[in-house]
Amino acid sequence: MKGKLYVFVLLLTSHLSYGQDAYERYTNFFAVEVAPVVSSTGVGISPTFSVYRTGHKIDIGALVKVYDLWKEGPGIMGGYFGYKYYPNLRKNTFNLFFGYHATFSASNRGKLYPVIVVEPFDIKKYPDKGYLNEHMVGIGFDAQLGNNFYMFNDFSAGVLIKWYTYEGIETESEIRSTGMVRLGIGFNVGHKRAK
Fold first, then answer.
1. How far apart are CA 44 and CA 78, in angstroms?
2. 147 and 23 in contact (C-beta within 8 Å)?
């Protein structure tokens, strides 16, 4: 058993080293990523398209919720936007980054539950739509898994803005604290080498 473990570690180390030697010469690349996402609103999967250029990376994609904690609020489908800054320009096998993450989702499932009660007349109002917007900052790392594959993990915290619209002009909103953890894998579709 120990022999098999040594062989695995040896092969993995050589694979990471080979991939990093080639990867360091990329000045920019286009990649696709997929990551399970856990936040204060539930659990989901986020497929994204990523563009990297000299220390800056932008991610745009979808957020598909698998489990929703707020039954009256956010929808199943949503959008994701991320920005990452790499102080070391991704020159190492493990690279630290600072990031900003934003998610948005909308749904009409809020119609199931009354939100506003006009007490003198005991009137309950049902929302037309429910909206959820999260803005977070955090820190993370990515690791080179070869010439084209990499994995990433990030942790972030911030604010969550939730609001409802009604048939009239009225709206109701609230602000909460939130957090998010992502762990995913990416694949470089296209890249340009440094000259």
1. 10
2. yes
Distances 68 to 77, 82, 95, 147, 189 between C-alpha atoms, Å: 11, 21, 32, 36, 32
Task: Output the average pLDDT for the chain.
Answer: 79
Contacts of 66 (CB under 8 A, 6+ apart): 42, 43, 44, 45
Confidence of residue 152 (pLDDT cuts 50, 70, 90): very high
Provide the β-strand partners of residue 43. Answer: 38, 67
DSSP state, residue 190: E
Domains and CATH numbers, the chain: 2-193 (2.40.160.20)
The pLDDT of residue 75? 57
Q: Could you tell me which of 13, 5, 23, 21 has the C-alpha nearest to residue 149?
A: 23
CB atoms closer than 10 angstroms to residue 154: 22
Closest C-alpha to 139, from 99, 177, 101: 99
Q: Is the pTM of this model over 0.85?
A: no
Instruction: Please name every residue paired with 111 in a beta bridge, in sequence order, or none if there are none.
Output: none
